[in-house]
Design a protein that fits this description.
The chain is mainly alpha-helical. It has helices spanning about 1-10, 20-25, 30-50, 55-75, 85-105, 105-115, 115-135, 140-160, 165-199.
Length: about 200
């Protein structure tokens, strides 16, 4: 009798987890992406308006950029998804970069100028990977892909420059990075809002 009871549940489908309600609840936080996008745009404006910023200030601002990127990827890693280890890995890399910037901003500025091409290559590759991961659920995934390709091109250009040129252009590239991140976050926020309204 107990064997018959155990077998009777084999063919029954699992209980409904109410997926649309869960997705609606998660997409209700679309405004977080909007706030993050606005914050990135403000940071880009602040960075691009510096005409004679001190080396220390530049190191701290770049550290804040990495910290914000790491925090965003930590949030993405908490979303229950099969590939959530990818943003977790990149969040660790971004957070390590932020800590290095905060420990010694002056020496970090010189190091960042030397490694500028590699750092932007890291960001560009991550944006392209993220674009393809979002492709099934985001019809505007190509905006992230284009940004990744642009940052990758900038990375190869920066790698071929002299140190003095790298030091002067570090601030401009950081501002452009923040600008592209802000635009991508705003686009994603409104796309999530559209999904939330549809549900």
């Amino acid at each position: 009798m107990s064997g018959h009871t155990a077998q009777s549940g084999v063919g029954t489908p699992p209980k409904s987890t109410n997926l649309p309600e869960t997705v609606r609840e998660i997409t209700g936080y679309w405004w977080v992406g909007l706030v993050a996008g606005i914050a990135w745009l403000v940071i880009s404006l602040v960075i691009l308006q510096f005409d004679s910023a001190s080396v220390t200030t530049v190191g701290v601002l770049v550290g804040l950029l990495f910290l914000l990127a790491g925090a965003q990827n930590v949030a993405l890693a908490t979303v229950p998804a099969a590939h959530r280890w990818v943003p977790a890995l990149f969040s660790a890399l971004f957070l390590v970069a932020a800590v290095i910037c905060f420990i010694d901003p002056v020496d970090t500025f010189a190091g960042l100028a030397d490694m500028l091409g590699f750092l932007f290559l890291l960001v560009g590759v991550w944006w392209m990977v993220q674009a393809f991961l979002e492709r099934p659920v985001n019809p505007l995934w190509w905006t992230r892909l284009i940004s990744g390709v642009l940052i990758t091109g900038i990375a190869f250009w920066a790698a071929g420059q002299l140190f003095a040129t790298k030091a002067y252009t570090l601030l401009v590239f950081a501002g452009l990075w923040a600008l592209m991140q802000g635009i991508n976050d705003l686009v994603r926020a409104f796309e999530v809002r559209r999904v939330h309204k549809d549900l």
